[in-house]
Write a structure and sequence with these properties.
heterodimer, A: 620 residues, mainly alpha, ABC transporter involved in vitamin B12 uptake, BtuC, 2 domains, two-stranded antiparallel sheet, 26 helices, 4 strands, 72% helix, 2% strand, B: 403 residues, alpha/beta, Rossmann fold, seven-stranded mixed sheet, five-stranded parallel sheet, 13 helices, 14 strands, globular
Chain lengths: 620, 403
């Protein structure tokens, strides 16, 4: 009994830190609809800044508690200012871009902040020394409980109360609530959106910064903090209902307690517990605990996605020449060039398969790497347990991925918007955890080795041609599907579900078919990739891999059919060049992404298409 | 930096290709391709890079190898095995390196090792700890320098078996390294002490430990002793909660790697006293080899060496010895030279075992202590890796025995 009480209190203390981060994220999302990947970076900056500021204050005035609190608040304000700056310099310029495009920009910011933090504070973990009063404890039911954790328990509710006051009693807060419900209407009523958005970013970032700062007495400031927290913060926000602060509070309590007791009951389930909770909640309550259906049936810019037309003749010539050039690569490129080309070909299919969902399907998947990884594991498991040759492995790959596509897709297509995206993420994390933890089957994080091609395809040139045939072949088929009646039906269901159903289309079924096709195609890409690399690891399913796919599609342009191809080549090309030749490649990649986002707010292919059509008119 | 190396190489190649200049093979540098997670784990890999840079400079100052200078072309794998494999290909095919070395993460080490087998080229794995690298997945072309999970666990078991403790709990990060470390510890300790029982285990996700809840859950089991495998940020978190909540009082803690400066230093003045750890008391080892190394390192980088520095330094030492012994750069001759290769580390004399390609580099076993607000090791001794490996029969059983 005593143990249960202490464990419960520990959960409450953790919930407070989680709530600070999640409330900031949810406020930002509610108003601006930005899926802010950089929120974890603000959390990390909060910890680093607090480390610097608190130590400076202590050096000046002794290790006093009030200086500590002052330091935390200063750090939070500083992070808030940084957040506002990011909004003004970066996001403000791209609110009119397609939804989710801001995600790209915030991801660029994540990369830049990582390198800036490394440059300013160095690589080593930075502990804040704890004076005696930070180490104090009280006796709870015969067990020691840290005094600081006890105080933390109250921080969450206090911040919740302050936010409530802010939102109910101030003009700013009322505007924020109004904008969360219907921001077009707020704008139509003459409210300065710019100031409102900047204010919201300041508030949200400051909360994240405070979250990072208050964990400092129990945790080092370290460079892995940003990505360690961001997935969990998203889970809390989604479970609570996006845009709902009380929901975030409830969800952070739920998640923290599930973790505190989960590790006692099932100590090995630490990797997957929170995602299981999220999947369960979304299946029962599709908009989270306290969320409402998103009121953004209107497209944010009032425009409809452009009609997809057949490619102009020039584009066909360009595409065919690129393909011919790639196929002829063994004549002029060295072995390394061929390796890179094979990777590019694989990523083109990976991005194209996601694009089928995101573009024509209107289904944004945050967990597309799951199907890429399942394809790779399908091939690798075939090799490991059945010793099948490559030819069979490449059949198993799309089968396994497609099978899971059916199962997961069945749940996913009934949701929409960001909730749908987060459910795909939850499924991807569950697959990842299985690959990571089911050591007997998958070899755990050490992966499956020895997945090499059949002897006839060992030659790099032959393997390239095989990859071209499979991946580009599948990509062409995906393109074909977009122009087929199926594709028209899918787009109709995306643009107006009601009207589509009125003419007899089954929207959910269309989306499910698209989901399975996309999953199986990603599976082919994963299978080819497995044989190209010779080994398969859980990293193929991890969140960064899903983000890569999103970046490729967004970079190329969601609303063009060639977008994913251009995006895959651009993103992977950029990554390779920078990784190899620039020591601070993350900052460089981040800057490049930001520059591309600002220069081509409709994606690279979208930009070219618009210029082309402005000049020569739309092809009919 | 990568850029500089590249440019150096191009200059060298350009000079060679210059018409009218007939050059002996002698001036062309011997090239080692090195891959590591430089941006993912800078706290570990930068001291490591310093270590190998120092050794390369020393060797070149002494006239190089086989009359040729030594050059390392290094790459950042961004913590991804798939990129490491591609870069290994790039180093072999485009940069024409003579062998591959490096890696930190176990899965990346395994990926590169399998690639090396496929391409039949030498791979000297520097830091990965997984036992699979030399046993279950061992291959002819892969050699590993750092003492493995098994070896470090065995060193601690030797001490743990002397303790009166009978009720044990374990806490380890939830991935292969943590799992192996716990598996071996349980297995080896139970063999020596049948009266010991393991009453609880905790598996926090790497980098995301819920320290308060973990500490309470461990205390709940009322253990006599604790076996800890967490490290880095998780370790600090665990130690702070454990200190405040009194988990470590009247209990012995046996902890893997915690004595390495990489992990000990961030604990600062909260370093718990009396933990039995493996590690590296860099400030106290005063053998001639180590003193020379430490002095040279401090002169060059104005910093003290970490364990990674020694690993980086030794990686190059071992490769240089192998090249000298082989007298050539053909892979098969290098592999033969590596098998049973003796080399001298700052820690003493070591050898790459022919039976499983594991080096006998050891670690220091001792107790943690606080001195002037910093953690350090006391009552330490050097545990020679050769004494902490399973019997040869067992190794042969675990390692694929082909050619």
């Amino acid at each position: 009994m005593d143990f249960l009480l202490v464990q419960f209190l520990t959960g409450l203390a953790n919930a407070s830190a989680l709530f600070l981060i999640a409330s900031g994220l949810t406020v930002i999302f509610g108003v601006t609809r930005v899926v802010n990947f950089a929120h974890g970076s603000f959390y990390m900056l909060g910890a680093y800044l607090a480390w610097t500021i608190v130590r400076a204050l202590w050096d000046w005035g002794g290790r006093e508690p009030w200086l500590f609190v002052l330091g935390l608040l200063l750090a939070a304000l500083a992070v808030g200012a940084i957040g506002a700056l990011v909004e003004i310099l970066l996001l403000r310029r791209i609110y009119r871009a397609p939804e989710l495009f801001q995600l790209l920009a915030t991801f660029g910011a994540v990369l830049i902040v990582q390198d800036i933090t490394l440059a300013l504070w160095g690589p080593e973990d930075l502990p804040l020394p704890r004076p005696r009063w930070l180490r104090a404890f009280i006796e709870v039911a015969g067990e020691r409980f840290p005094l600081y954790d006890l105080i933390l328990i109250f921080v969450g509710p206090v911040v919740l109360g302050l936010l409530w006051l802010l939102f109910q009693r101030t003009r700013f807060g009322i505007l924020v609530r109004a904008a969360t419900q219907d921001r077009e209407m707020v704008a139509a009523l003459g409210v300065d959106q710019r100031a409102l958005f900047t204010g919201v970013f300041f508030l949200g970032s400051a909360l994240a910064g405070l979250g990072g700062a208050i964990v400092l007495p129990s945790q080092n400031a370290n460079l892995q903090m940003d990505l360690a927290i961001i997935a969990e913060a998203f889970v809390v926000v989604v479970v609570g209902g996006m845009g709902s602060v009380p929901g975030a509070f409830l969800a952070s309590l739920l998640i923290a307690e599930v973790q505190a007791f989960g590790i006692v009951l099932v100590p090995k389930a630490t990797l997957v517990l929170v995602f299981l909770v999220m999947a369960a909640v979304l299946m029962v309550r599709p908009y989270g605990l306290l969320g409402r259906p998103q009121a953004h049936a209107r497209a944010p810019t009032g425009s409809v996605a452009p009609v997809i037309r057949a490619a102009p003749f020039v584009l066909k010539v360009v595409g065919a020449s690129a393909l011919a050039l790639a196929a002829a690569a063994p004549l002029y490129a060295g072995p390394y060039g061929l390796t890179v080309l094979i990777e590019l070909v694989v990523f083109v299919l990976f991005a194209a398969s996601l694009h089928l969902l995101m573009g024509p399907g209107g289904v944004v998947s945050f967990g597309h790497a799951a199907y890429f990884g399942l394809g790779a594991y399908g091939a690798a498991l075939g090799v490991r347990f059945l010793a099948v040759p490559m030819e069979v492995g490449l059949v198993l790959a799309p089968l396994l991925a497609g099978l899971f596509g059916v199962v997961f897709g069945w749940f996913v297509v009934r949701l929409s918007g960001v909730y749908l995206a987060m459910l795909t993420l939850a499924f991807a994390q569950i697959v990842w955890a299985a690959a990571f933890q089911w050591v007997e089957l998958t070899g755990g994080d050490n992966g499956i080795l020895g997945v090499w091609p059949s002897p006839w395809a060992r030659d790099k040139a032959l393997f390239l041609w095989l990859a071209l045939a499979l991946c580009i072949g599948a990509t062409v088929l995906l393109r074909r599907a977009i122009y087929a009646p199926f594709g028209y039906g899918l787009r109709a269901a995306r643009d107006s579900e009601l009207r589509a159903e009125a003419v007899g289309l089954n929207a959910a079924q269309l989306r499910l078919v698209a989901f399975v096709i996309a999953a199986a195609s990603a599976g082919i890409a994963g299978g080819v990739y497995a044989y190209a690399k010779g080994s398969v690891f859980p990293t193929y399913i991890s969140i960064p891999k899903s983000v890569d796919a999103l970046l490729m599609v967004l970079l190329g342009g969601v609303q063009t059919v060639s977008g994913p191809i251009v995006g895959a080549v651009a993103f992977h090309g950029l990554f390779l060049t920078l990784l190899q030749w620039v020591e601070w490649w993350r900052a460089a990649l981040g800057l490049a992404i930001v520059a591309l986002v600002l220069a081509f707010p409709e994606g690279v292919a979208g930009f070219v298409q618009r210029r082309w059509e402005a000049r020569f008119g739309a092809a009919s | 930096m990568a850029k500089t190396t590249r440019r150096l190489f191009l200059t060298a190649a350009g000079t060679l290709a210059a018409p009218g200049l007939v050059r002996a093979q002698g001036t062309q540098p011997i090239r080692i391709g090195e891959i590591n997670s430089y941006t993912t784990l800078p706290a570990f890999t930068i001291p490591y890079r310093n270590g190998w840079q120092l050794r390369v400079e020393q060797i070149n100052a002494a006239g190089g190898l086989l009359g040729r200078p030594l050059e390392v072309i290094w790459r950042d794998d961004a913590g991804r095995p798939q990129d490491a494999v591609r870069l290994a290909g790039e180093l072999l095919d485009s940069e024409r390196v003579d062998l591959i070395a490096g890696t930190f993460f176990s899965h990346i080490g395994l990926a590169v090792s399998d690639f090396a087998l496929q391409r039949r080229r030498l791979f000297v794995a520097a830091e990965p700890l997984t036992d699979a690298l030399v046993w279950e997945k061992g291959n002819r072309y892969t050699f590993r320098l750092r003492p493995s999970t098994y070896m470090q666990a065995a060193m601690l078991v030797e001490e743990a078996a002397k303790l009166p403790a009978r009720r044990w709990v374990t806490v380890a990060p939830n991935y292969e390294y943590g799992q192996s470390a716990v598996k071996w510890f349980k297995q080896l300790l139970s063999a020596r002490r049948p009266d010991v029982e393991f009453v609880a285990e905790q598996w926090p996700a790497l980098g995301r430990i819920d320290a308060g809840a973990t500490v309470t859950a461990l205390a709940q089991a009322r253990p006599d002793a604790i076996y800890n495998v967490t490290f880095g940020a998780d370790l600090t978190n665990f130690v702070r909660q454990g200190n405040t909540r009194g988990l470590f009082e009247r209990r012995t803690v046996v902890s893997l790697l915690t004595g390495e400066p990489e992990y000990l230093d961030p604990l600062g003045d909260e370093t718990p006293e009396g933990w039995i750890v493996t590690g590296y008391p860099w400030d106290q080892v005063n053998t001639p080899e180590h003193t020379a190394f430490r002095d040279a390192y401090r002169r060059r980088f104005n910093d003290y060496p970490r364990l990674g520095s020694v690993v980086g330094y030794d990686t190059i030492t071992a490769i240089a010895e192998a090249i000298k012994r082989a007298g050539a750069l053909e892979t098969e001759r290098l592999v033969e030279a590596m098998r049973g290769l003796p080399f001298t580390s700052p820690f003493g004399r070591c050898v790459f075992r022919a039976i499983d390609h594991q080096s006998t580099l050891g670690a220091f076993v001792g107790k943690t202590a606080l001195r002037g607000g910093r953690g350090t090791m006391v009552e330490w001794r050097y545990a020679d890796g050769a004494n902490y490996l399973p019997p040869d029969d067992e190794v042969r059983r675990m390692r694929p025995q082909t050619t």
